[in-house]
Amino acid sequence: MALIAVLALVPAACGRDSSSGGGGGGSSSASADPGITKTSIKLGGSYPFSGPASAYGTIGEGAKAYFKYLNAKGGVNGRKIDFMALDDGYEPPKALQNARRLVQQEKVFAMFNTLGTPNNLAIWDFLNQQKVPQLYVATGSSQWGKDIKAHPYTIGWQPNYVTEAKVYADYLKKAKPKAKVAVLYQNDGFGKDLLGGFEQGIAGSGIKIVKKETYNVTDPTVAAQVGRLARSGADTFLNITTPKFSAQAIAAVAKSGWKPLHILNNVGADKNLVLKPVGLQNAKGIVSTAYFKDPQDPQWKDDAAVKEYRDALKQYSPKSDPEDGFNMYGWTVASTMAKALEQMKKPTRAALMDAVRNMSLDQGTLLPGNKVETSPDDGYPLEAMQIIKFDGQNWKLQGNLIQAKAK
Amino acid sequence: MERFIQLVIDGIAIGSIYGALALALVLIFRSTGIVNFAQGEMAMFSTFVAWALVQAGLPLGLALLAALAASFAGGMVIERVIIRPVEGEDPLTILIVTLGLFILVNSAAGWIWGFNNRGFPRALPGGSTKVAGVQLSYESLGIVAVLLAVTGLLWLLFEKTKLGLAMRAAAANPASSRLVGINVGRTLMIGWGLAALLGALAGVLVAPQLFLDVNFMGGVLVYSFAAATLGGFDSPKGAVIGGWIIGVAETLAGDYIGFIGSDLTILVPLAIIFGVLLVRPNGLFGSPEVVRA
Amino acid sequence: MSVERDSARHKQLKLAGLAALAVVAVAIPFFFGPYRVSQFTLVLIYAVAVLGLNLLVGYSGQISLGHGAFFCLGAYTGAILLHRTSIPHLLTVPAAALVCFVAGLALGLPALRLRGLYLASVTPVLIKRFDGLTGGSQGISIAQPKSPSSLGLADDQFLYFLALAVAVPLFWLASGIVRRNIGRALIAMRDDETAARTMGVNLATFKTRAFGLSAAYAGVAGSLFTFANGFVAPESFTLTVSFAFLAAIVVGGLATVAGALFGALFIVFVPVWSADVDEALSGVIYGATLIACMYVFRGGIMGLLRAAWARVVEVQGSTKGRSEDEVAEVAVGGADRRTGAGAGGMRS
Hints:
The complex is a heterotrimer.
Chain A: H1 2-15, H2 18-21, E1 40-47, H3 58-72, E2 80-87, H4 92-105, E3 110-112, H5 117-130, E4 134-135, H6 161-175, E5 180-186, H7 189-202, E6 208-215, H8 223-230, E7 236-240, H9 243-256, E8 261-264, H10 271-278, E9 287-290, H11 304-316, H12 325-343, H13 349-357, E10 359-362, E11 371-374, E12 384-390, E13 395-397, E14 402-403
Parallel strand pairs in A: 1-2, 1-3, 3-4, 5-6, 5-7, 7-8
Antiparallel strand pairs in A: 9-12, 10-11, 12-13, 12-14
Helix pairs in contact in A: 3-11, 3-12, 4-5, 6-7, 8-9, 9-10
Chain B: H1 2-32, H2 39-55, H3 60-83, H4 91-113, E1 128-131, E2 134-137, H5 138-160, H6 162-172, H7 174-179, H8 184-210, H9 218-231, H10 236-256, H11 267-279
Antiparallel strand pairs in B: 1-2
Chain C: E1 2-4, H1 8-31, H2 34-60, H3 68-84, H4 92-114, H5 117-129, H6 131-134, E2 140-141, H7 155-179, H8 181-191, H9 193-198, H10 203-229, E3 231-232, H11 239-252, H12 259-277, H13 282-296, H14 300-312, E4 314-316, H15 324-333, H16 340-347
Parallel strand pairs in C: 1-4
Antiparallel strand pairs in C: 2-3
Helix pairs in contact in C: 1-7, 2-7, 2-10, 2-11, 2-12, 3-4, 3-10, 4-10, 7-10, 8-10, 11-12, 11-14, 12-13
């Protein structure tokens, strides 16, 4: 009896061909792909709104606020953006489930800004097989732009970690050509990418790494690691950490009495999130990099783009703090996304990728002179950064924008 | 030698962080017979309450006292409202209830206070002193002193007071305890209240070093579990010493067995615990399980 | 209705129930879209791991908080084999089972004493250290199994049936085990170690074997998980995986074989549902649901189903013929577990 029931179902099996399983894909010859109509565009993203990396979840809030603001102004070419951001708790398998849901069930037009290196690695094969754009991922790993042919639908956004590391290496070559460097780095792709870039950058110079320490994101504290670095005799501290550990490391350096030249990576250099909790006086003299305008920097107080950001965030995401640099990040990357949609010539995923891969864009919230630039051979939208130094009250821009290429 | 002593001191300072929360785990195990997964998250929530009170303008001392009192009350309420319905159930059922509580409290704190990192004011003096070439931080000395005092008080409570005796009896055998006239419900509530209070104390003591966010107790909990396991899950003294052994082992391993690298120092406590448990299945100071025929 | 235990009528009823379940299981991939099917595939995969953990925890009373470590080991065994050799996907399943069985035997007793928590948090660190083999934090991408064109199935449907084909024999095996000697020894041991010892059960051997078996189940689930995701990374195996498995056995029903399926349904669907109700409060909703389940389903969902079933069909028969499942259930419901053996179980 059961067998008959099973057999009766088999024709149904043949009824569902595998391409419908693919949610359409870019291969169809239809005039428009799924997720886009004359009046709407559906985008999807996956963020850590819960779990160990939940501090980054606010990037998604900043992006949502931008799209709401844009929709209130009429959207992109008459199309309103519907951005569906799901929680993955920073777990790659959940990010994959989210991507499947967004592509196959919610039928989004493109994936936008999913956060985290492992999470994007978990979904990039799936999205490229489905020919769904995976745009402006929120991670600085250098691999998103490395092999465009293998993953033509994937692109990053922020200056990658290797680029950033080279900026520090160049800075150090001028500021302290005989530096003895102690490094603290996070034991994952992010930490190793930055460390590797720095090692490449100082190759052949008088700069030496004298001690390396690492930590796992599950460690309660990095005090012991910083203690060992402080005793290493190094005169320079390269601090490759995420915000909570950045704060712990700065505090531990202050406590130890060690007075190195302190280089802190961009992701840990938020004044509100990291430096204030430690005490601003302990952060004086720290060097880092920036590529967009810091909403906490008084010099942008009357800047039109920053004001627009503040006002819109207040209106469309009242729970978010406009001082929080991660919100500014989300806002700025969302405005890049909107530009790409605006420049898209046909309502198809392939046409969107064309626009994404041929871009030259000034954006108000980026540092003056900084541009989003891509070409079919250049898969890295942002590659310029500027050195900043903390004066005890604020980050101060130093010198000019530095163009660095990751290779 | 000076370096060695310095490392041991640093290790004890770090181990005290683990020991502080382990004390709360041990207290609740001794007084209610369960392992509370949510202990770390409850401590985090208490610490946020103290933080919020300071933000609201209360002086630090007052804010801490208020948070500790609120935690004691909160712990009792949690026992009465959330745990009581499953009292007497399979221990695993209670464990899952505390797991649900873990997820719930973490998410609620994020909803109320957000996920950002916050500085927490120091209750203990900052700065340090040098004794015979060894740097001693006042804060770490203070935490060690508090841990020793709490361990002493717990010993007094369990060994010298009627309440403590009642708690041990209620944890070991609720049915018989009722027969001899112990108000089991009340002692369980007090046990939860005291554990929550100890957790809160641990939270406010370590938050200035670890920085406060909704996940700041997650990593500590794993180490505290290890500390309590090593020391014996029902021994307050064991919890503190277990924490110290783990802290010191990690610190020394990082310096002296350099080849394993700082990522793998996490294995050294594991090896120690394995070794100890093979010889003493109930940990260093744990009492052996009584098998009733 | 009233039937005699083990009568022809009783067997018919049981068979009909199984047939209905089979029809549902086979029909699922044809009634849902690819995303839903992938969720059900996950349910099958988790169910295998949960079943393995239940053999250990439910039947032998030993708690392993770090079972995600074996799930992870199985997933990586599969991924490394698929990445470095050209063996067919399905062969990685027994390989993962074997590796995890051996690891379970080796780590068994000390791991249980450690409660596994620390063990599970060490695993990602080890994966990163041996990056030559494991790809480190970069993870390993593997090609997912493709549906042979002769079957006319979409890949997601094929993957579902693959998982089903592995899960069904494992469920069958488990229900066989709990009915035979091992199961009896485990239950005896859980309920009264001293008595079990006097009955001639070698406790250490049995605990270790139970742990090995349980680890092997987790390993199989892990290797299937690799197929389903096409990617493994250290971040995929956090403590939450271990916690979810533990929650699943209690929600489904301790010491029940079928409960694993309900537990797996819970851990796959309830978190997604919670987040859909309210993104910001999803953890509050999920946590509260989990707690509520402990209040409402005494004996898990299986306990509830059995109670409901008992109202419809009254099964009569001597205690001699009672299945181990029911004996186990009585023991789980018994209040005395909380005292001697209960607290002991928590600590062993």
